[in-house]
C-alpha cells in the first residue's frame, strides 16, 4: 500500500465484513495502534465517525492516523491471537502495554526420563514432564529443590543414565562413574553429601528410585503431613537410641520443611489451580496484582505496571493484561478470577484453553469465598501502589522527565532514542570508539556497540569519530535497504536511528558528526556534551551555541550519566584489548625512553596530554629522567 496515495474515505468503503486485525500507521509509517474486530468494516469505520463518546486517547490517536491496513482471519479467535502477537512485536503507542517482561521460575520433574531429575526452569514445554509453579522467588525454588534432594536423594546432575544402569553398574557417564554396582567409589560429591542415591552406578534400582520420586511429587503437590510425621518419628527414635547426631539431622530437615511450607497458606478448599487478578489505579498509574493459587494454596504473588493507560476503562486494562501476560507465561491455570467482566470472555477463554490444553474458565465473582479472594488481591494492589507510586514517579522524573528537559532545552520534540559516542585511546594508540544507547532515559545495553579504529594512525579523535559515525550509519542504511528489498530479516541491529546524537565534546566533535550526517543525507540532530577545565559536564553545545544547564536538574544528571557510560564502555573495551598483549605507547617512539622511564612518566602524569603540556623543568622532576631525556620528550611533542 502506497501511503502517499492512501485515501482513508475510499479505503473505509472497501473494508470487509470478516473478522480480523486492523493496524493503524502514522505519517512516519510507525504502527501506533493494533486492534481486533468481529466485523472489520464496523469497527474501523467507528474510529472516523463524529462522536462525543470517544475517549481522549482515541481522539488523539485518530488525529495521527495516516493510513491503515488489515488482515482478515478465519475466526475471532485467530484475530485475538494475531492482535496480541502484533502488539507484543510493535509495542504501539496507543495500546495499553504490560511494562513487565519477566519469566517466572518453575520446578520441573523430568518424569519422562528413566531416572527423573528435579530442577528449576523458566520454560514450560509439552514434553510430558511435570511442572509446578510459577513461583515468584527463584531462591525459594532452589531451597525447595535442595530440600527434596536431601529428603529423597533425587539426582541433581543432567548426565544420561541408561535404563539398565542398575544391572550394568553405570550409565552413559564416561569416566565419572566407575566401579561395580552399588560401589560408591566412582560417584560424585552429591552422593557423599547425601543428596543423591547414585543411580548412575546402580546403587538404587529403578523401582526404588520411582518410590522416592513419588514422595517428592506428593510434597510438591502440597501433601506435607506424611513427611512431617515420618521425620518426627525418626527424630524421636534416634533420640531414644541416643543417636543425637542423627536426631539433629532429622530436626534440621524438619526445620527446612517448615521454612518451605510456611509460605503456602491454605486459602481455598478446592484443589484446582487458579490465578486471582485485581487492580489498583491512581491517575495514570495502574498496578495489576496476581495471586497464584496452586492446589488450593497461595504459592506467590506478583504485581505488574501497565503503561499507555490514558483514560482506558478498567475492563479494557484487565483484558489487555490477560492477553499480554498469558501470551508469555507458559503455565495457564484452570481458572482466572477477575474483578470486572471483559469484552469477548468466550474468545479469550477459548484462546487460554488452547494454550493450556484443557478448559479454562474466566470468572467474575460477586459474592462468596472467591469474591473475598478478589478483595484480598485488590487490597494488596492498593498497598503496592501507595508504596511504589512515589518510587515510580521518581523513576519517571529521572528518566522520561529528564529526556523532556533535554528536549525542551534543545527545542526538539518526541525524543525517545539517544545515542552517545566517545573516542578513547591507550597511551595514544589502539583508539576505540564507543556507542551507548538510551531509550526513554534508560540505558539499552543490547544496542551498545564498540568500534576498533581501523583507518586512523595515532591519537586523532576527530578522524576516529568520522570513522565510527560513518561505519555506524552506513551500516544502518545498508541494513534498512536490505530489509526493504526482502534480502534480510530479523531485528534492527543498526537500521534504527536515534532521535538525537550526543557527542562527548563540543564544537569540533559536533561538526564532525554533522559532516557525516550531511554526507549520508541524514537529518538527525547532534549536540555536544561539553566539559569544563576540570572535566566536569557543564552544558550542551547545539547549533553553534553552548546551552548552560541547571546542575541540580534531572536533565543535567542524565547527561552526566550518559557521558560517564560512554566513557566507561570504551574503557571496558580497552581492558579487553589489553588482555594478553603488550600495549604500545606513543612514548615508545621517543629516543631514550625505555620501559622504566615510560612507566615513570605514566605514573607521574595522568595522560599523554599532560606530558605533552609539561615543560623541560617539570619533566626533569620525574624519577629517572635527566635533562637530555627531558628535552627529548619535550622536543618530540613540540617539533
Please provide a written account of the structure.
The chain has 639 residues and is α+β, with helices and mostly antiparallel strands. The protein has 5 domains: 3-95, 3-Layer(aba) Sandwich (GIY-YIG endonuclease), CATH 3.40.1440.10; 106-222, no CATH class; 274-388, Ribonuclease H-like superfamily/Ribonuclease H (Nucleotidyltransferase, domain 5); 417-578, UvrC, RNAse H endonuclease domain (Nucleotidyltransferase, domain 5, 2-Layer Sandwich), CATH 3.30.420.340; 586-638, DNA polymerase, domain 1 (Orthogonal Bundle). Helix content is 43%, strand content 18%. It contains 20 helices and 21 strands. Strands 14, 15, 16, 17, 18, 19, 20 and 21 form an 8-stranded mixed sheet that branches. Strands 4, 8, 9, 10, 11, 12 and 13 form a 7-stranded mixed sheet that branches. A hairpin with a 2-residue loop joins strand 20 and strand 21 (545-548).
Quote the beta fraction: 15-25%
> At CATH's second level, what is the architecture of the largest domain?
2-Layer Sandwich
Q: Which radius of gyration do the C-alpha atoms yield?
A: 33 Å
- Going by CATH, what is the homologous superfamily of the largest domain? UvrC, RNAse H endonuclease domain
Q: According to CATH, what is the topology of the largest domain?
A: Nucleotidyltransferase, domain 5
Number of strands: 21
* Structural class computed from helices and strand pairing: alpha+beta
Total of DSSP H or I helical runs spanning 4+ residues: 20
Q: If you average the pLDDT, what whole number results?
A: 81
- Integer tally of domains: 5
Give the low-confidence spans.
166-185, 263-271, 580-584
The outline comes out as: globular
Proportion of residues in helical segments: 40-55%
Largest sheet: 8 strands, mixed
